Automatic annotation (TrEMBL):
One of its GO terms (molecular function) is hydrolase activity. Gene3D superfamilies: Galactose-binding domain-like (2.60.120.260), SGNH hydrolase (3.40.50.1110). Residues 28-171 form the SGNH hydrolase-type esterase N-terminal domain. Its EC number is 3.1.-.-. This is SGNH/GDSL hydrolase family protein. Keywords: Hydrolase. Residues 183-363 form the SGNH hydrolase-type esterase domain.
Amino acid sequence: MAKPNESASALRYDENMRLAETDSSGLEWFSPIRGPFRIFGFAWLQKDEIYRRLPVNPGWNVPEDVDQLANCTAGGQIRFMTDSSKLSIRVRLSGLADMYHLPATGQCGFDCYIGEPGEQQYYSTTRYDHTQKEYENELFDDGGERKIRCFTLNFPLYQGVEEVYIGLEPRCHISAPPAYDNEKKVIFYGTSITQGGCASRPGMAYTNILSRRINLEFINLGFSGNGKGEPELARIIAEIANPACLVLDYEANCVDTESLRASLPEFIRIYREKHPKVPILILSKIKFAKEEFSETSAQVLEERKEIQRFNVEKAKNQGDDNIHFFDGSSLPGEYAQECTVDGVHPTDLGFLMMANGLTPVIQRLVSQ
């Protein structure tokens, strides 16, 4: 009989809660930076050969916090095909899991999807000791059946990855994944929500959900607390070649309404200098839980939406037919009060609802 106040750790009673033993003996290890693997989501990877979301030497003065957050690997993906019946991953992180409201699986883990574009299904997430910066974990084992499969591995959302290696069976077939519909990229710039806070695993960030529905490369430039619409970031983002569209989702990081009023038209102007015809979507922020109970907060929300609508309409009146506004407060819909972990950052359900609302919008933009 259990004693009062005795620890009831589920690890003692449920083997599915424990760390799995990984047997990587006999596997051959590959760096995915080399072909036939393909890595997407890092616009400057070919130049710098590190997993980073901004260039190492951007040529513009980047705020220090943004520079540090660029080392978080949100939106990065490893894609390939293989007939290996086993797949393991070996990872060295830049730091430890340290967030109270974001699981280590989302902050520092990889997850695995199987299937070709449009048919990707979730398979597994890395299970590791979150007090460590290095881990090795089995992501796939089908019991020895050799069959060609397409794999997508999503990088951690809120931590840097210094090294990653893929472990496969010796003499297995490895080939490049199916091609995207074209070489264009869907670029998101914004906040902690854009970055993926607080998805339980990487594949549930809303940009990653969208990437499984729209067969293009996605670039996640969400900077937690620090995507504030600086002109330097507009210039850096404008350097990304072959944009399919640009989504600006940074309202929530503006310290006040006036900073949004000042930064948004300048950001648009700078981007339009290089990309006069690329679709731009201005996405206002989702509604936070406390805003349901504060008339003042509701007024601020409406004022900020009006600023964004005004800038879109002004640009349209000046002949820019490729700029659009979407009311983010409609996301994630009727379940908004139940879709966050802390009243601000969405859970997996919140991100799924956001993606559901944005999917037809992004599909229309990239088909223009």
